[in-house]
């Protein structure tokens, strides 16, 4: 099924430098599935405590991991 528009990445400075692009779909944050804005917010809060943030994203037909330090 198509991913909801609210799951598209809004690129901030740190994420942009790590390779996240506008329009990427965020599937998980540090292995926590992202289904909606609330689950993304919960995963992002928890990720701030980690040494690295690891995003699983879908870009077109490709699924990739990107890692970067939390801001």
Taking pLDDT < 50 over at least 5 consecutive residues as the criterion, the unreliable ranges are none
Query: Could you give a short account of the major beta sheet?
Result: 4 strands, antiparallel
Order of helices and strands: HEEHEE
If you compute it from the alpha carbons, what radius of gyration comes out, rounded to the nearest whole angstrom? 11 Å
β-sheet strand percentage: 25-35%
Helix content: 10-25%
Please identify the oligomeric state: single chain
Count of alpha and pi helical runs = 2
Describe what this molecule looks like in 3D.
With 71 residues, the chain is α+β, with helices and mostly antiparallel strands. Helices cover 24% and strands 30% of the residues. It contains two helices and four strands, in the order αββαββ. It has helices at residues 13-18, 37-47; strands spanning 25-29, 32-33, 53-59, 62-68. β1 and β2 form a beta hairpin. The longest helix is centred in the middle third of the chain and has 11 residues, at 37-47. It starts with 12 loop residues before the first helix and ends with a strand. The mean pLDDT is 81.
């Amino acid at each position: 099924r198509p991913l909801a528009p609210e799951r598209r990445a809004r690129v901030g400075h740190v994420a942009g430098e790590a390779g996240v692009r506008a329009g990427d779909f965020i599937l998980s944050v540090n292995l926590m599935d992202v289904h909606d804005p609330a689950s993304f917010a919960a995963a992002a809060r928890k990720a701030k405590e980690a040494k690295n943030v690891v995003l699983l994203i879908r870009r077109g037909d490709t699924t990739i991991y990107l890692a970067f330090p939390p801001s």
